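chain below, 374 aa
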Amino acid sequence: MPNSKVLLVANTDWYLFNFRLSLAKFLRDKGFDVVFVSPDGEYRESIIQNGFQHILWHLNRRSTSIFFEAKALIELFRIYKIEKPDLVHHFTIKPVIYGSISSRLLSIKATVHSITGLGYIFLSNDWKGKLLRLFVFPIYKFSLSHQNNFIIFENSYDRDVFIKHKFVKIERTSIIQGVGVDEDYYGYSPDPNLEVPLVILPARMLFDKGINTLVEAAKILKAKVSVKIALIGDVDPGNPSSIDVSTIQNWESEGLVEWWGFQKDMRQVYQNCNIVTLPSLGEGLPTVLIEAAASGRAIVATDVAGCRDVVKDGENGFLVPPNNPNALADVILDLINDPAKRELMGKKGRSIAEEKFTTQIVNNKTLDVYKTLL
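prediction:
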């Protein structure tokens, strides 16, 4: 098994660098030859500077063109044929589908897929989402059904959905909760004594993340208390759930929220806020929540898959129903008015992060999966 070649494949170099670099370093230390595969982007050089090979794959995550998708599939097949990996690990929807097909054609015995949340296709009830389901579900069933596939889910709910649709068999699955958190980097700090309490929502600017719900809650909160609410993250134009920049700017001009955009050092952001919220419609296992917990911050999230795996209601934060700005405003207001409660919840969150969600725990579980396949 040492010296085995592992390909980590995703639809962006941003994803690989921000969420799988720790795993890659861990595997390298164990003697694996780790290679990244993704389209080009601003993180490619950072991957290379960390001592890893990066292979360009000309995939367009926004494309729906049959010609360009077939071209991307053929290119990935050729990459696998040249590289001759012992194991491939796919992340995000197109790499999972195209990677599975390529692995099957080349008889790569160790093929791992990580399902990191159900996303727009599963969560949306609009016509576009329903149409995509008609197209994508049969492809999922075909691509994941082969005996060489092993699927890692981040929570039991997502796995149950895939089993219900007969995409996978339970004996070829495992649950590994998220990508883990570096508990040393995201160290505990006491709740800051700010003149105006700060609530943050760290996420891509997507409706699926419940950002519009927080905006509605902000209207309620600002009528009752002095509070600053900040949205932390970039827009994602390639996602069907993306929020237009103009919409966010309108919210800002109305004084409801501040938009800070992407922040490179989230550690400082967590240390300087009082409450972290994620009123999402559904998650795999949200990294921002385990980072917030490790940092000692009280959390307000929705009672949905992924979020409820991190937040224990009444212990390290509160869970509220999705799409319910009144309930969201109520619990945020409770925490704003009770610094002692925030402090206790922050300490409990730190304990939960150390016990369940460290990178060491997650990486070892991933390695265990690899060992069973190689």
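The chain is about 45% helix and 15% strand. The chain has a mean pLDDT of 92.
thats it, cya
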